[in-house]
Design brief:
The complex is a heterodimer of chains A (205) and B (498).
Chain A: E1 7-11, H1 15-26, E2 32-35, H2 38-44, E3 51-56, H3 64-73, E4 80-84, H4 89-97, E5 100-105, H5 110-142, H6 146-156, H7 161-168, H8 172-186, H9 191-200
Parallel strand pairs in A: 1-2, 1-3, 3-4, 4-5
Helix pairs in contact in A: 6-8, 7-8
Chain B: H1 10-16, E1 20-25, E2 30-33, H2 35-41, H3 45-48, H4 62-74, E3 79-80, E4 87-90, E5 96-108, E6 111-120, H5 122-145, E7 147-153, H6 163-169, E8 184-186, H7 188-201, E9 209-218, E10 224-236, E11 239-249, H8 251-307, H9 312-340, E12 348-350, H10 352-365, E13 372-376, E14 384-386, H11 388-408, E15 415-423, E16 428-434, H12 442-447, H13 463-473, E17 478-480, E18 489-495
Parallel strand pairs in B: 13-15
Antiparallel strand pairs in B: 1-2, 1-6, 3-5, 4-5, 5-6, 7-11, 8-9, 9-10, 10-11, 12-14, 15-16, 16-18, 17-18
Helix pairs in contact in B: 8-9, 10-11, 11-13
The chains are: A alpha/beta (205), B alpha+beta (498).
C-alpha cells in the first residue's frame, strides 16, 4: 500500500450510503475505498496515507469523533469530512476544532460533496508536498560537517563572516570556504534561503 | 261498671307522684304535701302542713312572691310560675334548690286550692349545660376549620345574616356594599357556576345536594379567596324551603393543588416532549439514511446522463440502489407504525355520554380544571363501537386545547361546551367541543393538524395530529369547524355499533 495514490476513504456503517457516495466519487475518476466501520479502516490504514476521509459522525462502535482522535494519535494527517444526519452546532464546532475540514448534512448534494472532496485532495497534496520538501531539507542539512553546521547556525542568525571567524576562532578565509560548501550542499542561493531550508529540516533556534 | 283503680285514694296517688307537689289554700298555707315534696324540702308532713308558702321562698323574693300570690288567687289560671326565670325553693335546712314550678288552680266545694308542682330543674340545667358546651365546641370547631354555616329560606334569603358569612358567601354585586369592606363579592367568572349549583340543589327532582367551589373577591384588599360550599336543600310539598350547609375557605388548598397540578403538567409536558423528540429523531434517522442514498444514487445517474458517459453497470447499480432504498424507507415507516399501534385495537360498545363525563374528570385531574363544562348530551343515544382509551384521549386533548387557549387569552374559567348528538346524515355519533377562546386564524387553522405544529410556547404539536389519527382509527373523523369564529370548534364522529 506504500505507493497508494491519493484516495477518498469512505467510512460509514450504512452500505447504501457507502455504495452511492463511492459511485459518485468514482465518476470523478478519484480513487475511492469504502469501510463499514472505524475499526475496519484503522486495521488497514497505512501511516503514509493520502487523500481524504469521509466519516459518518454517528456509528455504532467507534464513532466519527473517536476515529478522528485515533487518527491524530497515530499522526495520520488525513483531511476529514464528517457526514451527519442532523448537524448541530456544538458537535460540528468540536469536530472542526479537532481539525475536520467540513461537516456535511445528509442528504448531501453531489456538487457540494465533490467540491469539498476536491478541496480536501488539494489540501492533502499540499501537505504531502510540504512534508516531502521537509524531508529533502532534512537530508541536505544532514550532509553538513560538524564545523559547517556551526557556521550555518551563526550565518542564519545574521552574523557576518568576520564575526563567525572570531567566534569560532578560525580564519576569515576558512569561514568563506565552509560557507561556500554549505551553499553548495543545500542548494541555497543566499543566506535567507539557507535559513528557510534549515527551518524546514526541523531545526530549532 | 267498676274501674280497677276506682277506689284508689287521693292520698295514695298524691304520694305516688315522682314530682314534688304541694296543695295550698287560698290563704297561702300548705294543706297537703306529697312524699316527694317532703323529701325535696326536708320537712315532715306535720312540719310542713300549715306553713305559709312564703316560708319556702328564699328571703329576698318573699315580698315579691306574696304580691304575685295574691294576684294569682284573684285570677287563677293554670301556668308555669316565673315564666322562664330561674326559680329556687328554700329547704328546711336553708339550702336553695333550683326548680321549675307549675301552678294549677283547683276548685273544690267552693274553695280555691292551688296545686304547686316542683319540677326538678337539674335535668333541664344539665341539658342546657350540655347544649352550651356543644355549641361552644361547634363554634371552636367552625373557627378551627374555617367553617361558616349558611341557611337560606325558600326565597334564597339568608337567615341570620352575619359578617363572617358575608365575608365568605360573596354577594352578587359590590354596588350595595361600597361601605362595608367586610363583604366579599363573588368572582364574576364564578357566578354562573355557583348560581347553577344552587339551581340544581333546589330543583325538586334532584337529590338536593349542593356542592360548589368558587372564588370571592375580598373588597378590603382585593384578594381572591376560594370557597368550598357544601349543603343540602330541604323540600316541602315539592318545593325547596331551605338550603342549609357550610362554607370553608380553601384558598391555601387550591394554591397547593394548583402547584402540584402545574408540576404534574410540566413533568408530563417534558416527558411527552422527550418522547416526541426521541421518536421524531428515530423516525428522522430511519428515513434520512435511505433518502441520502437515494439522493446520491440519483445524482450519479443524472450526472452520467449529463456527461454522456453512460456506464450501464454503474447506472444499473445506482437505479437499483434507488429502488431498494425507497422500499427500505417505506418498510421502516410501516414497521414504526406497527410498533406504535402494538396489539389489536380493542373496540367496545360505549355510551358516548358517559365517556364525555369521564373525560371531564380526567381533564380536571390533569390540571385542566379551570373551565365550566356546558354539556348538551343526547340521552338514550345509541352505543358507539370504539376504543375507550382512544376516545378519552381525543376528548381530553380537545378540552386541554380549549382550556389552554382560554388561559392564554386570560379568560380561564369560562365555558367549554360539549355537545353529543346523532348525526342522521351519516348515521354516526357526533361530538362537538367548543371553547370561547380567541379562536384560530386562517393561517393557523390551515396547519393545525400538521404534526409538530403548535401555537403554544411549550407545546409539542402532536395533540391534534394524534387525535385525528385516533378518530380515524376508530372509523370516524375529526375536523375543525371553519365557519364558527367564536372560539375554536372541533367536531368528531364515531360509528354506532351495528
Amino acid at each position: 500500500m506504500k505507493t497508494t495514490p491519493p484516495t477518498v476513504y469512505i467510512i460509514d456503517d450504512e452500505h447504501a450510503i457507502r455504495d452511492s457516495l463511492a459511485l459518485m466519487i468514482a465518476q470523478e475518476n478519484i480513487p475511492v475505498m469504502t469501510f463499514e466501520s472505524a475499526e475496519a479502516f484503522l486495521a488497514v490504514c497505512p501511516q503514509e496515507c493520502y487523500g481524504c476521509a469521509i466519516i459518518d459522525y454517528r456509528m455504532p462502535e467507534m464513532d466519527g469523533l473517536q476515529l478522528q482522535e485515533e487518527l491524530a494519535k497515530r499522526n495520520i494527517s488525513l483531511p476529514i469530512i464528517f457526514l451527519t444526519g442532523h448537524g448541530n452546532i456544538p458537535t460540528s464546532v468540536k469536530a472542526m476544532k479537532a481539525g475536520a475540514i467540513d461537516f456535511l448534512t445528509k442528504p448531501v448534494r453531489r456538487e457540494k460533496l465533490i467540491s469539498v472532496v476536491t478541496n480536501a485532495m488539494i489540501e492533502s497534496e499540499r501537505t504531502l508536498t510540504e512534508s516531502a520538501s521537509c524531508k529533502e531539507a532534512e537530508k541536505c542539512i544532514a550532509t553538513l560537517t560538524e564545523r559547517e553546521y556551526d557556521v550555518m547556525l551563526l550565518a542564519i542568525q545574521g552574523h557576518h563572516n568576520k564575526d563567525i571567524a572570531r567566534k569560532l576562532g578560525i580564519s576569515h578565509r576558512t569561514v568563506e570556504i565552509h560557507k561556500s560548501n554549505i551553499m553548495h550542499k543545500t542548494g541555497a542561493n543566499h543566506v535567507l534561503d539557507l535559513a528557510r531550508i534549515a527551518h524546514k529540516s526541523g531545526l530549532k533556534e | 261498671m267498676a274501674y280497677p283503680l276506682q277506689n284508689l285514694s287521693f292520698q295514695t296517688l298524691f304520694d305516688a307522684v315522682a314530682d314534688a307537689m304541694l296543695l295550698i289554700s287560698n290563704t297561702g298555707h300548705v294543706v297537703q304535701a306529697n312524699t316527694a315534696s317532703q323529701q325535696l324540702l326536708g320537712y315532715t308532713a306535720q312540719e310542713i302542713i300549715g306553713l305559709e308558702v312564703e316560708a319556702l321562698i328564699p328571703e329576698g323574693y318573699r315580698k315579691h312572691h306574696h304580691h304575685h300570690r295574691v294576684g294569682f288567687i284573684k285570677n287563677p289560671e293554670k301556668r308555669a310560675m316565673g315564666s322562664g326565670n330561674d326559680l329556687s325553693v328554700l329547704t328546711k335546712d336553708g339550702k336553695e334548690l333550683a326548680v321549675d314550678i307549675g301552678l294549677s288552680p283547683i276548685h273544690h266545694e267552693s274553695e280555691l286550692y292551688v296545686l304547686i308542682t316542683f319540677y326538678s330543674v337539674f335535668k333541664r340545667q344539665e341539658v342546657e349545660r350540655a347544649l352550651r358546651i356543644s355549641e361552644e365546641r361547634l363554634r371552636l370547631a367552625k373557627k378551627a376549620a374555617g367553617l361558616v354555616v349558611f341557611d337560606f329560606d325558600e326565597k334564597l334569603k339568608m337567615h341570620d345574616e352575619n359578617e363572617a358569612l358575608m365575608a365568605f358567601w360573596g354577594s352578587d354585586s359590590d354596588k350595595n356594599n361600597q361601605n362595608n369592606k367586610n363583604v366579599s363579592v363573588i368572582h364574576p367568572q364564578d357566578k354562573a357556576i355557583r348560581d347553577s349549583a344552587i339551581r340544581d340543589a333546589i330543583t325538586p327532582t334532584g337529590n338536593g345536594e349542593f356542592n360548589v367551589e368558587y372564588r370571592v373577591i375580598n373588597l378590603a384588599d382585593n384578594s381572591i379567596h376560594w370557597v368550598s360550599a357544601t349543603g343540602k336543600a330541604h323540600f316541602k310539598d315539592g318545593r325547596a324551603t331551605r338550603l342549609l350547609g357550610a362554607a370553608r375557605d380553601i384558598t391555601e388548598q387550591k394554591i397547593l393543588e394548583k402547584k402540584l397540578q402545574d408540576q404534574h403538567a410540566e413533568t408530563e409536558t417534558l416527558f411527552a416532549k422527550e418522547v416526541a423528540t426521541q421518536t421524531a429523531s428515530a423516525i428522522a434517522h430511519e428515513i434520512n439514511q435511505p433518502l441520502t442514498a437515494i439522493s446520491a444514487y440519483s445524482e450519479v445517474a443524472l450526472h452520467a446522463l449529463e456527461q454522456d458517459k453512460i456506464d450501464s453497470s454503474s447506472l444499473k447499480r445506482a437505479l437499483e440502489g434507488c429502488v431498494t432504498q425507497a422500499q427500505r424507507a417505506g418498510g421502516s415507516l410501516h414497521e414504526l407504525l406497527a410498533f406504535l399501534q402494538k396489539g389489536e385495537l380493542i373496540k367496545d360498545l360505549l355510551d358516548i355520554n358517559e365517556v364525555v363525563k369521564e373525560a371531564l374528570v380526567i381533564a380536571k385531574n390533569y390540571g385542566y380544571y379551570d373551565f365550566y363544562p356546558l354539556l348538551q348530551l343526547e340521552s338514550n343515544i345509541r352505543p358507539v363501537l370504539a376504543n375507550k382509551t382512544q376516545v378519552l384521549k381525543i376528548l381530553v386533548n380537545l378540552l386541554r386545547n380549549g382550556v389552554e387557549a382560554m388561559r392564554g387569552a386570560g379568560i380561564s374559567s369560562s365555558a367549554i361546551s360539549i355537545t353529543v348528538r346523532t348525526n342522521a346524515n351519516i348515521s354516526m355519533a357526533h361530538v362537538t367541543v367548543q371553547d370561547v377562546g380567541p379562536g384560530l386564524s386562517d393561517a393557523v387553522a390551515k396547519r393545525i393538524f400538521e404534526p409538530f405544529f403548535t401555537t403554544k410556547p411549550r407545546g409539542i404539536g402532536m395533540g391534534l395530529a394524534i387525535s385525528r389519527t385516533l378518530a380515524e382509527a376508530n372509523g370516524g373523523q375529526l375536523w375543525l369547524d371553519p365557519d364558527i369564529k367564536v372560539g375554536a370548534t372541533f367536531h368528531f364522529t364515531l360509528p354506532f355499533a351495528k
